[in-house]
Design brief:
mainly alpha, Rna Polymerase Sigma Factor, Chain: A, Arc Repressor Mutant, subunit A, 71% helix, elongated
């Protein structure tokens, strides 16, 4: 191997750090990703790793760089698996629902718009809490952790939100569907 060929794997001072790292470790990360995610998703994992680097990730120097990049890739792979798992779970839940007639679908769309309208009227933190618990199917401690508040305060806030929504539905002469089986 002549010097010109080996320069591909050596850092080039004229390139940004991200480009150097990609030249040095891009193939290693791609192999890593291909062993852990679907083949078609591997390039996305590598892209996201270098996006973290480009956004100012503190990459250690020398031989510590590749393990650090692997750690970033590991977290991205976990996120990808979680996303795929949620997608499969949602698909299963949707498939288990009974078929609806056109009138039922229209009523469901109208009620969904109504609920979204109510959520949009809530303060942002309350709306986010409701979305986390209802739409993302998180339990109260997980939602509390995301919002940076205690689980007790989260329970209280969720109770108040439910009361507000109930009063809003009653004031608009709407009978909300109730599903107490999922209440935290």
């Amino acid at each position: 191997m002549n010097m010109e060929q080996s320069s591909v794997t050596q850092p080039d001072p004229s390139l940004p750090v991200t480009a150097d790292l990609y030249l040095l470790y891009g193939e290693d990360l791609l192999r890593y990703a291909r062993r852990r995610v679907l083949f078609e998703d591997a390039d996305d994992v590598v892209s996201e790793v270098f996006l973290v680097v480009a956004r100012g990730g503190k990459v250690p120097g020398g031989s510590a760089a590749l393990p650090w990049l692997y750690a970033v890739a590991y977290r991205i792979v976990l996120k990808s698996r979680t996303k795929r798992w949620r997608s499969v779970r949602l698909r299963e839940r949707l498939e288990s629902l009974p078929a609806r007639t056109g009138t039922e679908v229209d009523a469901l769309v109208a009620s969904t718009a109504l609920v979204n309208s109510m959520i949009d009227r809530l303060p942002e933190r309350d709306a986010e809490l409701l979305r986390l618990v209802v739409f993302e199917d998180l339990d109260v401690p997980a939602a509390a952790d995301i919002l940076g508040i205690s689980p007790g305060a989260t329970h209280t806030r969720l109770h108040r939100i439910r009361r507000k929504m109930q009063a809003w539905f009653e004031s608009h002469a709407i009978s909300p569907l109730t599903d107490n089986s999922r209440r935290p």
